[in-house]
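Components:
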Amino acid sequence: MQLPSFMMIISSSAGLSLLLWVFILMVLLYMARRPAHEAILSMSKILFHGFRLFASSILIAEKKLKYRNKEVLLSAGKEATERIIEREFERIDAFVKKDLAQFPTLQREITDSVVKLDEDYQKSTEIPPAPPGWTKAIEPIAAIPPSEDSMVAEILKSIKEALDKGQEKALETYRKSSEKRHEYLKNMVPTLRHINKSVDGLDKNVQVLLDRSATVDRHMDEYSEIIKKTDKASQMLSSSSMTQFFIAGFVLAIAIGGAFINFNLISRPMQEMVGGSVYMMGFKVADIAALVIILVEVSMGLFLMESLRITRLFPVIGALDDKIRFRMIIVSFVFLFLLASVEAGLAYMRELLSADDAALVAGLLTGGSVEGVEGVDDTGRWITTAAQMGMGFILPFALTFIAIPLESFIHSSRTVIGVVVAAFLRLFAVSLRFLGNLSRYSGRSLVNIYDLFIFLPLWIEGLVIGSKKTELKPVEVKKIQTTEAVPVKKRAPRKTATKKVTPKTDEVEEDKE
Amino acid sequence: MKTLLITLLMLLGFSACSTGPHKAHNKGVYMLIDTSGTYTKELSKAQQIINYTLSQLGSGDSFVVASIDTGSFSEKDIIAKVTFDDRPSKANQQKRAFAQRIDSYIKNVKSSPYTDITGGLLQATEYLNERDTRMKTVMIFSDLKQELKKGYKRDIPLTLDGYHVLALNVTKLRSDNIDPQEYMDRLTLWKGRVESGGGHWDVINDLERLDKLIKE
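Structure:
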């Protein structure tokens, strides 16, 4: 091993020179031991406290952010629940107006039907036929024993005939009246059915009302939880926001895919309108124009949804007068329709260009005819043309519905971002605390390593002190111990500390931290 | 707020001013066809390459086909040239017309006794520099054996900064079969000339590799 010339104390031996250097270094380090220890420990303490302070401030920021998140979440939840309850009441109102407004008429109908039923019932009651009065009168004659007198027999015969005739007539009358009564009873059946139907309808309506009121009750419970700012409400809203965020994100991703297809449909034919070699800020103007058309369609869709009060991204639109809002619906729909028509035309143009390109490339590469195509004449090609035109027309309207997931995404992203930032802050604070503890224990380790390097002088010191201790009297030893103990200052216990301070309290507290 | 609005409007104005056929996005291809001696038999291959190149170029790109003959440093040697229109449909029509012009030229080509490749290269650089295209490609369809008429001076250093020079279908001559070193020397000579001029040199003899013809 070669040592630099300035380190060669003994020029003939590098090993001895190195040994001497080690010895000198050891002695110097031994002499500087106390200030070195203090410097290392104070440095580690500074770092420890610095990191802890930083971590504490971040934790405070995280706490504030959490509080703010909760406030925002509850406020959003309150607004959403109010909207739901309002909507439920609107539904109940519409229902009551539509279905239960007919209740008095229905009641009247039922009453009328009941009266009619009662009348029919009265009419249908069986009245026993009154026995004819003269039967009693002829009873004694009938009781005359039969004799051979032809006169009497003749009379009795005629009486019997008259009686039979009367009986037949009475039977006929009875049958007729029975038939009439049955007619009345028969007529009661549809009335009864009508009443039954009316009552069933009423029952159904009341059941719907009960269901709606149960829903309102449920939402009211949620609302009261939100008003009370309970943790349950906060957790419920937070989890709902997370779900909304992911679902809306998924739907938006699908919508972006649709927009991308739409873009590809119109970007090439756009070159026919604005040129294929014109660039703006490094992008083809045709591509920019296609993108602008799609974005305008999305904007029109947003306005349409806002005007229809399906979404509430722009409170100004929602608060507009109904008449103006209706005009806005018409205007945005007309714009959307026109843009969709333009897109359908561009899609047709794209198909023509593609066919022309294909014919040209085929002609150039195969050496055949390079004549262009005049129209879309190939069999079956009309299907792709129609499909492209259809897509060009439908996609703008489909993109209109982006507004709904977009609203959910924007509203839920506030919560999600808040939660993510809070988690990040907590992680950062934990990392800082870890670094603080690391620097603190590193300081201690460095002190020990320092002592390890100067183990020889320390060992000698130990031997010297040991021999001195054996020579000294016990009283002197005590004196030495007390004089050594004086410089150690104990930190006064904190005023807030409740525990009894033990000699190693500081260390224990710091460890706990 | 007002200042911000004015700044935004100004930016928009500047960006709008920057529209127009942007010179930094188009391609320029200049193809030199050797028409000397027996090499005219190879011209059907050149037509294939021209057609392939036409299919690869788009709106705003420029394409020139010129012949290499006794004195190629002349506009008279340009067989066909075109800068494609902004509209794709119009560009397709131009491509068809270009292909037809090349077809009729190849059918009626007359071979020249000399081969002035350097003159052709100089003419190509002059044309493409004037067009100021972003990509500049010079394709040389030749056996790379330069034969100059007495009195023609072509020991001029080439300036080919930013150029991609492609040697296509560099056929082996009868003498190359006897001494292949001659073929190697020809390639090395032209590579050296192009690269010393700042250009990038490539050789494509296999026409199946035409996909690498116009690379970014």
